[in-house]
Structure formats: structure tokens, C-alpha cells
């Protein structure tokens, strides 16, 4: 058998470092287009992808499907052929956008997505063709197939004169979409241990197995984050990426799960406390702890490995960064928080908010959740920030609502049972996504724990016309100019304790 060659004439040696991310509505458009026709026939289409090179992976994000015209794809039996007209249109379109070009084709039902010799030759030709046409961009080749109840995807990316095999696929809220590297099925999942017997009894063995191969990134390891972490780890989530830039303080002890007075005395980072705690009660969960902030590049690179992102801070800037990642890098996100309303110790409201940020959801600015004044203040060194009352006055002077999150009623400091309620509820919804067993129907849930029926309301909202969140879905680094802000120079470099 002849040796497989790359477009550069070198032997084909792919590294399993490709990460493919898919989200709605492009995910559904991909499958509807690729699987058009009879189950025993092949189909295909061109597509466009954003990308980011991290320290360990080449992450690609599906941004658009180019629906084929009649006659673009010939054959359709065991093999297909891309016509010259279809290839020419893809080339002309590439000159008008900054994205990577790729071709996706579907195998007949129950046929593994294993590339054939013809696929190898087609990939070699198109990778070289687009490398000459739009140098510096990846070329993406994917094969999709229906295998039982799952959707199997194999593929490879030609970039920087080398092939990257798709080693992992992360599809928004859809654990049935799985990577089959080089067309081979993934390894057999583990047998659930007895400690998760109640979870498997409720959701089934497959739910635990899906949790085992999942990664969740948490932005914030304080009151809400430290409450969510044990829920996820004890349920069996295989890997947690925990991000926070703060250390334990005296006032944290009332709500920071796992903390001790000794942590305060030693100024132990919150991420270290979280990692230590998980090792005690869920030693099988891998924890990557980073003392840093979004969107610092090193932190972003780590977060991009996650299946779901949780926002667990009260920072407006952090909330903007989380939603931006959901839009541009296609990581579904849940943002959670809580507050207490009242005056002089008299409580009038105990509020919990959980917000869904999917790739196609409106951003926090569209939803009126962000104060530009507060974001500006959060970017300053602590000693240069105005007092809260002065910040509110400045916001009002600029025509902003002083507190656009939930209410303008005076707030009392949040206490542990509120942050714990928010964190545990949000973690439960994340488990629903990861297992595929349930999906919250709300977009922006608000609860008042002292109101009748918890005062539960959902606040569906629309994106503002022209907002970048409507035009950069899946664009990854190729829409870097749409990022809400850049990390200030005075932020310390991220550290892995």
C-alpha cells in the first residue's frame, strides 16, 4: 500500500490535537445538510470555521454551513465527487471572509467515519489548494456518520504545514455527538462505582459515563463556585478547570466551602482550597487550578477545553468574558449569582439568578445586565476605584442604571446560604446538559426565596440589532476585535498553584 502523503509531500503523520466545537443553529444545519438523501448514500458540503491555537490544541469552531447547490456533489453512493463549480465558489467566498474553509461529508448510516484512500487524496488536494489560495488558514476535513443513537465524527485539520487529527468533539448540550479519531470508536466507558448508585438509578449508567468524559470550567471559586464544585465532582465529572484570582479572607469563611481559618492566616488561593477539597472527597476527578482571570490568554486556552462553562462571580467584566466565550468559541455557559435586598438589617428580598448563555443567546449588554461604569472600575487597580455610591452616581450621570442586574433596591451583603443555593442549582442544570437527561427551559431565571412560589420568573430577551453577539458566532480568534475588553497590564500573570 502506498504511503499517505501530505500536501507538502511529507509522510502523513497526524497528531491527535484537534478539538472541534459545534453549537446551534449551525450544528443542526450541518447534520441536516450532510445527512440529506437516503441513509445508504453519502452527502457533503463546504463549511467555515473559526480557530484558535492553544498550547496543546488547535481548536476549531463551526461558524457557517455553505449549503450545496443542485449538482455540486456528484455520486452519492459509496463515493462522492466535488464539482469544479462548487470548489470555485468556496474559493471565491474565502477571499471575502477571514475564516478557515472545510469540507464535511456524511457516510451512510452505521458506516464508521473512517477515511478511505479517495478521502485521503481529496484532503491532500484541497488542503494544498486552500493553503495556496488563503495562506495561514487551516483546512478542515470532517466525516460524520450515524452509529446507533450517536453521531460519530472523525476529521483532520491541515495547518502550519502539519495535520492535526480531531481527537475531541464538543457539541453544545449534545453528548450523543462523539469523536471517533481516525474513524475508530472511542474506548469502552468505565463501570459506574457504587458511590453514584443514586445518580445512575435516576439517570442511567450512560449518564455517569458521559459525566466521566466531561470537563467543566468554573470562573470563580468563592461562595457560588465553591458550592458548585462538590456537586459536579461528587456526581462524577471527570475534569474541573477552576479559575480565580483571589485568596481566602476572614469574611469568606461564612460562605467559602472547604476553607479553614488557617487558609485565611496563610492567604491560601481559593483555587488551591478547591483543589485540595476535591482531592479529599472525589480523588478520581482531575482538577486544573489556575490563579488568574478571564480573558488572559493562558486562562482562555485552558477554558477552551471545557464542555460547559460556569460563571460564578459578581464581576460585570467576568460575566461579559463568559458570554463572549459562549458566542465566539461555542462553549455553553451558565452564569449564577445571588443577592439580598433590604435596609438596616431588614430583608425584603433574597434573590438568586441563573442565566443561560448559549452561542445564539443575546449577550449581557443586550440583556441590560452590564454597567459600563462598573466594568471600567473593575479594570482599575483596587486603590483607584471609586466607592460604590460614587460608582452609582457616575453611572447615573452617564445615563446608565446604577444597578442593572436585578433591582435598584438597596442591597445587603450576600450570605452563604444564598450563594450555596445559586451554585448548587446551577451545577444541577450543568449536569442535565452533560448527561443529556434534561435541559433547563429558561433563559434568565430569577428567584426570590421569600416570595410566594419563590417569585420565579423567566426573562427571555432579544439581541440588539447590530450587536457583535449576532455576527461573530463561532468566529473564535477571527473576531478578536469583538472581545469586550483586553486584560489590563496590572493584572498579575496566571499561576498554577
Automatic annotation (TrEMBL):
GO biological process: cyclic threonylcarbamoyladenosine biosynthetic process
Domain THIF-type NAD/FAD binding fold as annotated: residue spans: 201-451
Listed GO MF terms: tRNA threonylcarbamoyladenosine dehydratase; ubiquitin-like modifier activating enzyme activity
Superkingdom as given in the UniProt entry: Bacteria
Name of a matching Pfam family: ThiF
Name of the protein: THIF-type NAD/FAD binding fold domain-containing protein
Amino acid at each position: 500500500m502506498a504511503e499517505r502523503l501530505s500536501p507538502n509531500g511529507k509522510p502523513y503523520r497526524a497528531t491527535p490535537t484537534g478539538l472541534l466545537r459545534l453549537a446551534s443553529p449551525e450544528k443542526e444545519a450541518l447534520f441536516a445538510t450532510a445527512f440529506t438523501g437516503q441513509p445508504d448514500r453519502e452527502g457533503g458540503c463546504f463549511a467555515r470555521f473559526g480557530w484558535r491555537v492553544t498550547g496543546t490544541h488547535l481548536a476549531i469552531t463551526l461558524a457557517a454551513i455553505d449549503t450545496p447547490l443542485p449538482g455540486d456533489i456528484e455520486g452519492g453512493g459509496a463515493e462522492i465527487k466535488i464539482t469544479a463549480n462548487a470548489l470555485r465558489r468556496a474559493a471565491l467566498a474565502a477571499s471575502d471572509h477571514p475564516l478557515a474553509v472545510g469540507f464535511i461529508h456524511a457516510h451512510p448510516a452505521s458506516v464508521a467515519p473512517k477515511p478511505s484512500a479517495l478521502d485521503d487524496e481529496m484532503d491532500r488536494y484541497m488542503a494544498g489548494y486552500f493553503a495556496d489560495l488563503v495562506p495561514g488558514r487551516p483546512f478542515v476535513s470532517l466525516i460524520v456518520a450515524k452509529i446507533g443513537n450517536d453521531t460519530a465524527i472523525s476529521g483532520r485539520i491541515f495547518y502550519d504545514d502539519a495535520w492535526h487529527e480531531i481527537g475531541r468533539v464538543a457539541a453544545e448540550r449534545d453528548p450523543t455527538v462523539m469523536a471517533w479519531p481516525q474513524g475508530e470508536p472511542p474506548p469502552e466507558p468505565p463501570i459506574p462505582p457504587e458511590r453514584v448508585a443514586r445518580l445512575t438509578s435516576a439517570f442511567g449508567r450512560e449518564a455517569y459515563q458521559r459525566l466521566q468524559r466531561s470537563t467543566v470550567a468554573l470562573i470563580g471559586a468563592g461562595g457560588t463556585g465553591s458550592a458548585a464544585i462538590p456537586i459536579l465532582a461528587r456526581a462524577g465529572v471527570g475534569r474541573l478547570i477552576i479559575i480565580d484570582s483571589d485568596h481566602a479572607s476572614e469574611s469568606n469563611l461564612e460562605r467559602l466551602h472547604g476553607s479553614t481559618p488557617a487558609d485565611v492566616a496563610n492567604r491560601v488561593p481559593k483555587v488551591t482550597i478547591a483543589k485540595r477539597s476535591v482531592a479529599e472527597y472525589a480523588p478520581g476527578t482531575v482538577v486544573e487550578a489556575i490563579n488568574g482571570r478571564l480573558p488572559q490568554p493562558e486562562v482562555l486556552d485552558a477554558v477552551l477545553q471545557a464542555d460547559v462553562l460556569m460563571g460564578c462571580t459578581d464581576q460585570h467584566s467576568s460575566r461579559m468574558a463568559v458570554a463572549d466565550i459562549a458566542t465566539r468559541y461555542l462553549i455553553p455557559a451558565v452564569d449564577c449569582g445571588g443577592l439580598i435586598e433590604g435596609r438596616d438589617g431588614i430583608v425584603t428580598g433574597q434573590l438568586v439568578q441563573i442565566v443561560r448563555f448559549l452561542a445564539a443567546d443575546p449577550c449581557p449588554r443586550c440583556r441590560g445586565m452590564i454597567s459600563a461604569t462598573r466594568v471600567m472600575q473593575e479594570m482599575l487597580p483596587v486603590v483607584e476605584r471609586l466607592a460604590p455610591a460614587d460608582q452609582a452616581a457616575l453611572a447615573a450621570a452617564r445615563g446608565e442604571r446604577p444597578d442593572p442586574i436585578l433591582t435598584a433596591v438597596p442591597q445587603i451583603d450576600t450570605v452563604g446560604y444564598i450563594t450555596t443555593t445559586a451554585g448548587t442549582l446551577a451545577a444541577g442544570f450543568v449536569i442535565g446538559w452533560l448527561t443529556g437527561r434534561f435541559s433547563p427551559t429558561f433563559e434568565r431565571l430569577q428567584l426570590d426565596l421569600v416570595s410566594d412560589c419563590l417569585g420565579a420568573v423567566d426573562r427571555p430577551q432579544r439581541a440588539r440589532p447590530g450587536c457583535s453577539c449576532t455576527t461573530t458566532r463561532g468566529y473564535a480568534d477571527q473576531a478578536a476585535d469583538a472581545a469586550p475588553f483586553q486584560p489590563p497590564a496590572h493584572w498579575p500573570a496566571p499561576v498554577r498553584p
